[in-house]
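To whoever is on call:

I kicked off a structure prediction for a single chain this morning and the downstream step that reads the tokens threw a length-mismatch warning. I double-checked the sequence; it's 438 residues and nothing unusual in it as far as I can see. Pasting both halves so you can look.
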Amino acid sequence: MTSIPAISFESSLSPRVAQLKNLLVSLDQLTRFDEIVDVRTPLEFAEDHIPGAINAPVLSNEERVIVGTMYKQVSPFEATRVGAAMVARNIAHHLETTFAGRSRNWRPLIYCWRGGKRSGSMTTWFNLIGWQARQLDGGYKAYRGSVLEALKRLPGQFDYVALTGHTGSGKTRLLQALREAGAQVLDLEELARHRGSLLGALPDQPQPAQKAFDTALVGVLSRFEVQRPVFVEAESRRIGAITLPQTLLERFQGGACVEVETTHADRITFLLQDYAHLFDNPDSFKHQLERLIGLHSREQVKHWQQLIEAGSGGDGGGAGAAAARAELFGELIERHYDPAYQRSSRQHFSRLGEALRFSFRPNAADSIGQAAALLASLAQAGRKADGNADAKASGKALADAPRHAAGAAHAASPAVAAGAEAGLPADGRERPASVKPQ
């Protein structure tokens, strides 16, 4: 009887298997690939990931817990066997859905937590299919290490101009206007999704994880030009739940300052607009103010809570509610925010006494024009410092505003008049002296 030759699946794959030996690539090769695929769980991906990556988990959140528990309570072998089956099913699902339309020449880079079995499994199968997939050496852990290293190095490369001023003076609005006027701006509250104060949480916008904030911060700093100053709002170490890198904090707190000044009435009007959402949930608002007990008496905090009730009250948001809201913010400014600002700003910003004072109208429609006027004022201060050796030696030159800032502000039609009134050159060629933080 004639024997039937055995078919060896392994031998038929041997040319492919031989190609799988050198599939690891380092972080510096990220840009070589068509797509970056993060195979970690959705929870891990949500905490932080390489910018631009897509999530194609080979284990779900629940499956990872199951495998981890088996590893500790049963045996590593059983956990690996069960986990391999889960990974295989999930890779099959992604092949039929997420990656069904990828071309034959597609080149993905795949990573997991530290370049282990999860990313290795998908990389192996993708190469067996014929895609030129590679695995990130060290995985997300290596990427996170590069972010932490960048946070030690990048902040010190720039000169900063910090916008200081009382709560309600519109520093964030001025910062955004400076960006529109062409300046180089680092908006830390935008990255942290928090206004930085006791009541700074944004409605329906949870803060990012610390790791995600760090990644976003490195991304912004990496795009900045070292020759130009960076405008930043004065912040303390923490913005809500986010902690700023010490290297950045020390750098901009020791840099040049602009003291933003706003009338008391404008500050209240601004706060009434920016914090109006707090009255939509008066119980939550009152609960937040309870954190002030200890800094203020229980009677004082109770009075403010009564004003919240009145400001949220049953007259349909009429004159009585409006008056209560204005009274509340007026008292918070005078009794809480302003004393706190006086204590912290003098302590943390060493050059606040040298600050250029700038009057800002945060509720006006010409914020970009006002920002252009500030850049012009900084230019003038820089020229004076250039002509005064003593001023230069003491570090009083305020800013090296960008060449194109004046032109950008001039091009923004609502801002032209204000910029011109401030002496802003029509051709946008003025360049003030450099800031050199001490």
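Update from on-call: the warning came from a stale cache, not from the record. Cleared it. Sanity check on the structure: The domain at 11-149 is CATH 3.40.250.10 (Oxidized Rhodanese; domain 1).
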